[in-house]
């Protein structure tokens, strides 16, 4: 049986606002299994955003673990991300999970992977998933050449462009923001 995968997530930190969005497509092999998956969640009363790409069940497991870490470390997103990455890399069960996450607060964006990486991207733009490079490229260009746009507008347009190019990304977008 093929795994269900969910794909493109994009985050932009711009002019004091962070926006995190994702498309709604989940695929099973080369078939669209669902077109309206919600891959972005708000945590800590709206102070932290999380987006995930990869195996859906694995991503939800990691989301729960991340929320536990956030609560354990008083909402310190970077510390929670580092502790999750350590557990993800060393725990026998977690090590097998196939997903990536972007976490965002009003001050920072982080990419968390199962290899123990916690990356703070340059330029305040991060993307993951199969359409991630398309969305990242579009958002970087918008941030550089259309700085009058809001973070939310950059995320929406970046995801829209990714949806035009990547067969695993659709236009059913969910975008959350923190100002």
Quick recap of the structure?
By secondary structure, this protein is α+β, with helices and mostly antiparallel strands.
Helix-strand blueprint:
Elements lengths: L3 E3 L2 E6 L2 E6 L3 E3 L2 E4 L5 E4 L4 E8 H17 L4 H14 L8 E6 L4 E4 L5 E2 L5 E4 L3 H14 L5 H15 L8 E5 L1
Antiparallel strand pairs: 1-4, 1-7, 2-3, 2-11, 3-12, 4-5, 6-7, 7-8, 8-9, 9-10
Helix pairs in contact: 1-2, 3-4
Task: Supply the key terms.
179 residues; alpha+beta; 31% strand; Glutamine Phosphoribosylpyrophosphate, subunit 1, domain 1; globular; four-stranded antiparallel beta sheet; eight-stranded antiparallel beta sheet
Question: How would you describe what is shown here?
Answer:
One of its GO terms (molecular function) is metal ion binding. By secondary structure, this protein is an alpha+beta fold. The protein has one domain: Glutamine Phosphoribosylpyrophosphate, subunit 1, domain 1 (4-Layer Sandwich). It is built from 4 helices and 12 strands. Strands 1, 4, 5, 6, 7, 8, 9 and 10 form an 8-stranded antiparallel β-sheet that branches. It has a 4-stranded antiparallel β-sheet with strand order 11-2-3-12, with helices on one face. A hairpin with a 2-residue loop joins β2 and β3. α1 packs across α2 and α3 packs across α4. The longest helix has 17 residues. The chain is globular. The model has no long low-confidence stretch (mean pLDDT 91).
């Amino acid at each position: 049986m093929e795994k269900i995968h969910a794909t493109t997530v994009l985050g932009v930190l711009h002019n004091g606002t962070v926006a995190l969005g994702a498309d709604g497509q989940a695929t099973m092999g080369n078939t669209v299994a669902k077109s309206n998956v919600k891959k972005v969640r708000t945590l800590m009363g709206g102070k932290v955003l999380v987006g995930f790409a990869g195996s859906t069940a694995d991503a939800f497991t990691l989301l729960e673990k991340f929320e536990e870490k956030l609560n354990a470390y008083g909402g310190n997103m970077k510390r929670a991300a580092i502790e999750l990455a350590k557990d993800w890399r060393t725990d026998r069960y977690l090590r097998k999970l196939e997903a990536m996450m972007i976490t965002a607060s009003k001050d920072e964006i982080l990419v968390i992977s199962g290899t123990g990486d916690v990356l703070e991207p340059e330029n305040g733009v991060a993307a993951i998933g199969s359409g991630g490079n398309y969305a990242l490229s579009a958002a970087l260009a918008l941030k550089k050449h259309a700085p009058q746009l809001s973070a939310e507008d950059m995320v929406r347009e970046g995801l829209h462009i990714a949806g035009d190019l990547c067969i695993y990304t659709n236009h059913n977008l969910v975008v959350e923001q923190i100002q």
